[in-house]
Write a structure and sequence with these properties.
By secondary structure, this protein is mainly α. It has 2 domains: 13-145, no CATH class; 152-278, no CATH class. The protein has helices at 13-23, 28-34, 36-39, 56-72, 76-85, 87-92, 104-116, 118-134, 147-185, 190-193, 207-231, 234-237, 240-252, 274-278, and strands at residues 253-257, 264-268. Strands 1-2 form a two-stranded antiparallel sheet. Strand 1 and strand 2 (264-268) form a beta hairpin. The longest helix has 39 residues, at 147-185. It is elongated and about 60 Å long.
């Protein structure tokens, strides 16, 4: 099968002027933009179909965005928002200044395909190696940054954001629907943990620390859903936000029985989210 090298369009003039004025030639994303086509030389990762679209340009950008996420510790949603607001990232991806943005679900779908497509995963490993040599990505001393390590990091951070956002939305909907009921069941720490003013960091400084926090959030969700079920109030159980929260709980958490204490314990599902296990792309 013949190989067709990727050639992204030239960097738009408006993006070039804005990015260079704001960031200068030394910015790593400016330097990446100058060598973007070169970085993809010989890589055939671009054959993947995402959301019905088979576009070499789109997949090249999703590949770079995934690397940017890892480098900057961003979730899918934060990555899409960063590209919408930052001229240096648009420069790196050869996008116009007024580019409308990407769909975070499409970025998620790209990650899912990498999980299940060994050939694309191997080719993406080549790109990771080049980006490590370039200085964007950092490998531990004497070790190679692997595709699955990178994907686990970016996908886990996005999963955490989805879980917390589902809890936010459910609590806001319950506040509007029946605030008196919510006041009776709400735990004291919810007012701090799920306040919009307090941004929870989704990328952990410590894996063990974040796992503890995630289990606590899972227990909060379980407690809230249990209270809603016990209320037998259709006005609460029928809320779309509550149904979404229930789906998130079922997809992202497990409940087990402690063999010693016989108490129920909440556990975060390891590695892959439900979408990847289902192969839903």
């Amino acid at each position: 099968m013949p190989y067709y090298p990727l050639t992204l369009p030239a960097i738009p003039d408006d993006t070039a002027r804005a990015a260079r004025a704001l960031f200068g030639e030394g910015n790593i994303y400016i330097r990446l933009g100058e060598r973007l086509n070169e970085l993809f030389d010989g890589i055939e990762l671009m054959k993947m179909e995402i959301h019905g679209e088979r576009s070499a340009e789109a997949n090249a950008r999703y590949a770079m965005m995934t690397a940017f996420q890892y480098a900057e510790e961003l979730t899918d949603y934060q990555m899409v928002e960063a590209i919408r607001n930052r001229a240096d990232l648009k420069y790196a991806l050869h996008l116009p200044v007024n580019y409308p943005g990407f769909d975070p679900l499409a970025l998620c779908a790209f990650h899912q395909r990498l999980y299940v497509d060994p050939t694309s995963c191997l080719n993406y490993q080549v790109l990771i190696g080049r980006l490590t040599e370039f200085g964007l990505l950092t490998a531990r001393e004497g070790q190679i940054l692997l595709v699955l390590q990178l994907l686990e990091a970016v996908c886990t951070s996005t999963r955490r954001q989805n879980v917390v956002e589902a809890m936010y939305q459910a609590l806001e909907a319950l506040t509007i629907t029946n605030i008196e009921w919510l006041r009776q069941v709400a735990l004291p720490h919810w007012y701090e943990r799920y306040s919009r003013r307090r941004r929870i960091p989704f990328w952990p400084n410590s894996k063990g620390e974040w796992l503890t926090i995630t289990h606590e959030i899972g227990a909060d969700i379980q407690y809230l859903l249990g209270g809603i079920d016990k209320s037998h109030l259709s006005t609460l159980t029928s809320l779309r936000e509550v149904q979404v929260l229930r789906q998130v709980w079922e997809e992202q958490f497990d409940e087990t029985i402690n063999v010693v204490s016989h108490a129920k314990e909440v556990h975060w599902r390891p590695t892959l989210c439900a979408s990847c296990r289902k192969g839903a792309y």
